[in-house]
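Input/output pair, single chain:
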Amino acid sequence: MKIIKVISVFVLFFLFDGALAQSNNNYTQQADSICNVVFSKWNLPGMAVVIIKDGKEMLLKGYGKSDYSTNGKEITPETQFVIASTTKAMTAALLATVIDNGKVNWNDTVINHLPDFKLYDPWVTQNFLIKDIMVHRTGFTAYAGDDLPHFGYNRDQLYTLLRHIRPTYSFRTKYAYNNAMYTVAAKLIEKHYNVSWDQAIETYLFKPLEMNSSTTGKNAYFNNERLAKGHRHYKEGDSIKFKLREDTLRGYAWLSAIAPAGFVVTTAKDMGNWLKMNINNGVFNGNRVISKESHSFLTTPQTITSSDSVTINNYAQGWTVEQGPSGRLIRHTGLAYGYTALVAQMPELNMGIAILTNAGNTTTPHMAIAREIVELVSNTDNRDWVEHYLNRFMKPSTKKPTKEQQDTTTHKRLELYTGNYFKPDFGEVIISLKEDKLFFSLNKIKSELKHKTGNTFTMVVPGVGKVEVNFFAGTNVPIESLTFNIGDPIGKFYKEPF
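Output:
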């Protein structure tokens, strides 16, 4: 009788296991179909996707090409992509390993570990905690500091220049997305591991996760045959088109300056390991990479970003945590210089997904795939997400063109504006006059100034666009100082005496 029971159990096990395999195989086929539809409808140049379900690869596949020249290659799971701001979660995870080593605590003040750390407000500097660094509530305007790399400032200089940016909001009161603050996290990592952020992330994150094709842009951006080339991706009438980006040098300089926030280079295959570790609460292949406590904190909501009647979004440590009727969608998108990525975890489904493309401009195809996959696996059908996001992408812009302020007040004699203007940490701005035209020079930037009104001029800076330059009179001095507008105020450069 016992033998019959044992045989029955084995029969049921194999029947269940076979049914599960058949179900997963069906998921794979349907997920692949979703990816193909989205890839076609958005006319993407290339895409790689990995979906992890119950610790296994449900889908791992490439679509399209690295570029469409004669040297373009088919995208595979081993093709490398820049993953832009999805890097943030990796820098947060790397900092968590420092905390696990007992060298730092989330509730420590930053200045206790980095004595040279300084923000505009002395009180904020003294009370700024490590857990405040990456959650976008510093008080800056959104993307404050993002333009500074286009003026020639590198990562170390960007860290120093934070002290000059006057905040717009009160500390810890408002969500405003920021890349520059991740340089502070990198400084902490570098201090306690005594190596560069680039080396630390390879040694203490990629190596234990067996992410053997992952590195940073410093080591993999140029002359790398495995890296898909970035493309511009745009609407033209009712069509969607793409073309190769040619501003790779500018892209490299900008991404290098904000690297801890956006310059990991990796593959869909490696991202599968990253997802497995996160889905398994910090454990990969039986080895604990991040403690359970630290890993849980990485996705603990810190800053409310948005909400509606059914969903609330919070920012955690490098992740957005969306809480809705179907459970949590822990995600982050990234978009920079011809690359776009989405990485997401669905804890209630024991699933994760990473979508990497070599097309810039929009995350709508990535979100369409992710939400369709969630509904596929959860057996729900709330909406046609493909059409929803495609319509959103193709919807004509309602933004009205801004009217240029009329030149209502004449400028002073042009020679009065010329001279060398200095600001500590920023360096020297040189205003020169040639053939009745004013020119602005700072680091490697040189641009003609066009008069707008009064003592306000404009210039065009590659990577930034039109920037206002304001000159100010002094006491008994026609022109004493200047500043240029890049979001939050950076303060004045003062004219040096001849």
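The chain has 14 helices and 23 strands. The CA atoms of residues 19 and 250 lie 52 Å apart.
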